[in-house]
Q: What sequence folds into this?
DNA sequence: AGTGAAACGACCGTAGA
DNA sequence: TCTACGGTCGTTTCACT
C-alpha cells in the first residue's frame, strides 16, 4: 500500500514556486485553461494538468464555487462565541448541522466554540440564537458579535 | 447608465432552483464541464454557460482555488478578538495588510474587530500577536482563541 | 432565456526522455 | 516529472425560437 486514507493530519506538503504560481492563477480564475496557466508559469499544458490533479487529489487544493451572502440577501452575519460544559465535540457536531451556520471551530480560550452564522434579517438571527443554539445541551453562555463590515477574506495558504 | 460600480450593498439577487443546482454542482467541483452540469440540472450546455457567466460577472459567485492550511504546514490557527479605540476602519485596514491574517471583520459587541491568523508554529503566532497586532495604534486589548479543530466550513449561501 | 449545429480549442491518455 | 502528439470531448459563436 502506498497512500491510505487518513482521518487526521497528514505530513506537511511542500509547494515549489511553480505550484504556488499555478494556485495563484487558479485563485484568480478557477476555470482558466491549463494551456493558459502553462503559458503564465512556463510549463506545458500536460504538466500543469498533472500538477493540478495531484494537488486536488491530495486534498491540498480544491477548486470550488463560493457565493457572496450579502448579494443574496443574507445581510446579517455574526460570530457567536460559546462557553460550554461537557463534551465540546458533540456540541460542535450539533452546530455543524444547522444550515444557517457556515463555520464551526473548537477553540482554547474564554470560548470553547466559535460559530459563524448567516441570516437574512434580525428576526432570523434572534430565533436562531435563542431557539436553536442556546437551547443545545452543554451551552452555558453565548456572546454575539454582529458583523458590521467584512474587511478581508483570503482562501489560499502556502502561496504568499 | 444602467449598472454602475458600487462600493457597498447591491440589491439582493434572487436565485431560482436551477441556479442553486448549478452552484451546488460547481461547489462539488468547480471544473465540472458545462455539458455535465446541464445533464444534472436539465438544461443545455449553452444555457448553463450563460447562467454561470451572469452569476460570476455580477459577483454573486466566484470559482476559485482554495487551499488547506493544515496540509501545508500552517498548523496554528487562531481567532483574535480585538478591543479598540479610535477609528476601527483604519485598524482593520492595517490588519488586512498582514499576510498571516486571512480574515478581518468589524463587529459590534465586546470586540470591535475579529481577525483570523494562520501560522506555522507557536513562535510565529506569539511574535505576530505581540510585534504586529498588539503594537498597532488603537489596539486596547486582545483575546486569542487558538483553534483546536475546524468542524465545519461552508462557502455557499442561497443554495440551502 | 433557451436550443441546436458547426468550427474551434481544450482535455486526456499514452509514449518517450 | 516533463514534453509531444492524436483522438475525443467541451466550448464558442451564431442563427433561430
A:
Amino acid at each position: 500500500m502506498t497512500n491510505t486514507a487518513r482521518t487526521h493530519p497528514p505530513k506537511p506538503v511542500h509547494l515549489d514556486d511553480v505550484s504556488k504560481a499555478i494556485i495563484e492563477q487558479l485563485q484568480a480564475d478557477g476555470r482558466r485553461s491549463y494551456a493558459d496557466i502553462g503559458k503564465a508559469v512556463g510549463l506545458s499544458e500536460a504538466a500543469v494538468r498533472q500538477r493540478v490533479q495531484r494537488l486536488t487529489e491530495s486534498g491540498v487544493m480544491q477548486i470550488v464555487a463560493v457565493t457572496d451572502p450579502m448579494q443574496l440577501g443574507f445581510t446579517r452575519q455574526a460570530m457567536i462565541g460559546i462557553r460550554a460544559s461537557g463534551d465540546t465535540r458533540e456540541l460542535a457536531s450539533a452546530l455543524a448541522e444547522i444550515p444557517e451556520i457556515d463555520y464551526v471551530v473548537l477553540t482554547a480560550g474564554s470560548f470553547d466554540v466559535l460559530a459563524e452564522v448567516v441570516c437574512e434579517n434580525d428576526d432570523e438571527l434572534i430565533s436562531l440564537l435563542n431557539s436553536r443554539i442556546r437551547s443545545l445541551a452543554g451551552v452555558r453562555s453565548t456572546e454575539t458579535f454582529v458583523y458590521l463590515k467584512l474587511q478581508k477574506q483570503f482562501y489560499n495558504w502556502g502561496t504568499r
About this structure: The first helix of chain A runs from residue 17 to 28.
